[in-house]
Amino acid sequence: MDEKNAISAFQALAQPTRLAAFRLLVQAGPDGMAAGEIAAALDARQNTMSANLSVLHAAGLVRNAREGRSIRYFADYDTTRDLLSFLMEDCCGGRPEICQPLMERVACCPPETE
Question: Which domain of life is it from (predicted)?
Fold first, then answer.
């Protein structure tokens, strides 16, 4: 991930509803959630949630798939891993044991499935 993409991701996450939606999708795992379910869970208006999900999608943090008349959203774990790797690049001054607990905690992300 380059700096431009990282900044885009951070800008997308720098809003409370978008951050909450992203975290909700991470928790939902590979099954994702329909846009209406996300809006209901966050007590947000559907048109507002749609706009926020579009921002997350443009930043590459979520994927979507049409299911009939609704759209299901999924956290993009590859982009999330890339963003975390960007943050941790060259960390710890050559002492990987400092970062190891953090890396083990992040390793829980499920692999992408399509």
Answer: Bacteria
Domain count, the chain: 1
Q: Which CATH number belongs to the domain containing residue 101 in this structure?
A: 1.10.10.10
User: Per-10-residue mean pLDDT for the chain, 114 residues long?
Assistant: 95 97 96 96 95 97 94 95 84 77 68 50
| CA–centroid distance for 59 within its chain | 9
The model carries a pTM of 0.84
Domain range for 95 is 3-106
Specify whether the CB–CB gap between 77 and 111 falls below 8 A. Answer: yes
Cβ within 8 Å of residue 30, ≥6 positions away: 74, 110, 113
> Is residue 36 situated within a structural domain?
yes
